[in-house]
Amino acid sequence: MTTTNVKIVRDSDPATEIFAAFIYALMYAVVGAAIAVHWALLFPMISLPIAAAVTVSVLWGWPFGVGVAGIALAGIMLWRLRRPEMFERWVTRRARTRFLAWWRYRARWNRKLTACGLAIIDGDATRIPRLLSVAIGEHSDRVRVRMLDGQCPADYDNRTSHLCHAFGALDCHADLAGPGVYDLTFRRSDALAETVILPRVDDWTKKEAA
């Protein structure tokens, strides 16, 4: 008796593939637009001059748009030179904290939490504790986490060493912040290791003598 295997090949519908590609492109466009609007609202001192330059280019031509962009760039550089503390607070520090929050935690959160044993495997699905917020500090970062159902505070207290090494910190401390919410504090540098220049003792004696 001879057995014959028959393989049925179904031709995909080109219209279906085109429609699926269009949906994916639309989704990426919406996500990209949302991210662009988010950053524009965070840094209006940068986004408004760019919007003005683009608008002028469309209405009156690109040479005028380039002129507006040059004036805006000169104003931003003058602001940075004349008021460095204000520029640091409103531009540099905000951009730095958001980039570090993404680079240190958000970009690799799922993979690191899974490696540290804080994920829960439920059949074919993997549940990861939700990252609620990230606060970047000068010497330490605070990460707020939503615990998964079935987890207890001891699960995080016993994993601080794993989390410390996973995220490249010097130390990790876990605190219960509320029902089902945990704060993870990652120490990035030693504040006491910085050199502090003290005034000369003879300066004090001169002031007292005067």
What would you say this structure looks like, in words?
- The mean pLDDT is 83.
- Helix content is 55%, strand content 17%.
- The strands form two sheets. It has a four-stranded antiparallel β-sheet with strand order 3-4-6-5.
- Strand 5 and strand 6 (181-187) form a beta hairpin.
- It has two domains: 14-99, no CATH class; 108-193, Threonyl-tRNA Synthetase, Chain A, domain 2, CATH 3.30.980.
- Helix 2 packs antiparallel against helix 3 and helix 3 crosses helix 4 (84-104).
- The chain is built from eight helices and six strands; from the N terminus they run αααααββββααββα.
- The chain is flat.
Short overview:
The chain contains eight helices and six strands; from the N terminus they run H-H-H-H-H-E-E-E-E-H-H-E-E-H. The chain is α+β, with helices and mostly antiparallel strands.
Q: Name the shape in a single word.
A: flat
Q: Could you describe the largest sheet, including whether it forms a barrel?
A: 4 strands, antiparallel
Total of domains? 2
Spell the H/E element sequence: HHHHHEEEEHHEEH
Work out the radius of gyration. 27 Å
Summarize model confidence as the mean pLDDT: 83
Low-confidence stretches are none
SS strand fraction: 15-25%
The largest sheet has its strands arranged as 3-4-6-5
Distance between the termini: 118 Å
SS element count, helices: 8
The tally of strands reads 6
Helix content: 55-70%
The computed structural class is alpha+beta
Keywords: Membrane, Transmembrane, Transmembrane helix
Transmembrane segments: 21-46, 58-79
